[in-house]
Amino acid sequence: MKLLVREFEARGFRSLKAITYPMSDLDVFVGSNGVGKTNLYRALELLRSAASNSLASDLARDGGLASALFAGPRRRTQSPRIRLAVGFSPDRGRGDARPLYRYEVEVGFPAPTAGAFETEPEIKLEAVSYRGGTKTYRLLDRRGPSVMVRGADGRPVQVDIDLLGSETVLGRLEDPSRYPELDLMRRTLLEWRFYHGLRSDAASPIRQPCAAVATPSLASDGSDLAAVFATLIHIRGDAAELSAVVDAAFPGAKLVVPKPGRNASFGMTFAEFPHRVFEASELSDGTLRFLALAGALLGYRLAPFIALNEPEASLHPDLMAPLARLVVQAAKRTQLWLVTHSAPLAQAIVKSGAGEVRTVYKHEGVTGIEGLKAWGAFRDAEDRNAYAENAHAEDAQAEDAEAEEVEA
Fold first, then answer.
1. What is the arrangement of strands in the sheet containing 101-108, beginning at the earlier edge strand?
2. Are 171 and 183 in contact, with CB atoms under 8 Å apart?
3. Which of 13, 116, 198, 402 lies 20 to 30 Å from 213 when distance is taken between CA atoms?
4. For the segment 89-133, what is each residue's pLDDT rounded down to a tens digit?
5. Is pTM, for the whole model, over 0.85?
6. Three-state DSSP class for residue 250
7. How far apart are CA 151 and CA 212, in angstroms?
């Protein structure tokens, strides 16, 4: 069974005072620098960290809990906490958009008597719920060290588990056969992929050959890109879309992927040098980054959820249309979350009709999304299509200007 993301919630994280967002197949976010787009992206990434049992350590590496907490005012009786949640539903024709399963985790400072370091993040609450008809059932309920899990027989039982305050139950799941719903949620989150800051320097793993192992999905650091290409071409035997995208981005160029031996590698020929194969180590930063994005979005089997943070970085403006094509094609096979500063990229996606473009803003230090209400719904269709209308209006103005030039 495949789980689709239906809803995402973040409270008390950096500039996210309280955001509940209804997910679609393709969500695109635009906005000025510093409004909190990356905070939305990072909050999603931390949910995956909860499944891998690295939530506390990832927060600590990001500067610690104190820097991650919402900096704005709160009630005196309100403890400083970060709450993250995600709602899922099985892929049943994408009809019912309401979450069937919900995972939530809350993090705060440890109590003075807790067996923890003074400032380390501690899991205060962790829960998994299931909506059955008009009722909601708790499949997992963790309050501090106390953990209750509902077994396959439907009965809640107290679980005796050696659990540190910084560890998540989902990350410590040891008997998936007894808790199939929890295991499904954990595996789904672990399969999520986040692509940002793909390195293209001389020592980048993308530039190096990799082990020749059939690889359906690109790793987050792009280190198995050559294997992803080799899997598409030599195992799946379907490189038509990959070849078309490369040609659209670099007219006359061809991706060259030799049949792997112990290692997999790739290179490119260009229109000016059709008989000279340029190895990955020789390609420009922009070319390499575009190829990595192609590998991420055209893999043999895509992750159930993919998030891209400013994929246009280091890319020439002429590559925005081919990149939009990649994004739109991938959205037919998986769910995509895209943060971008590129108006041409966002507008190209709007014109395709494949996804929604949302404008992120900040008011008095709090991040918000235009048209989004507090309970996680947009005001009306007019708000949802505002960006699309602006994009089409700009196109019409450009066409009128071009026509006037021709007449002149």
1. 16-22, 3-13, 81-90, 101-108, 122-132, 135-143, 146-150, 156-158
2. no
3. 198
4. 987 555 556 788 999 999 999 876 556 677 789 999 999 999 887
5. yes
6. coil
7. 41
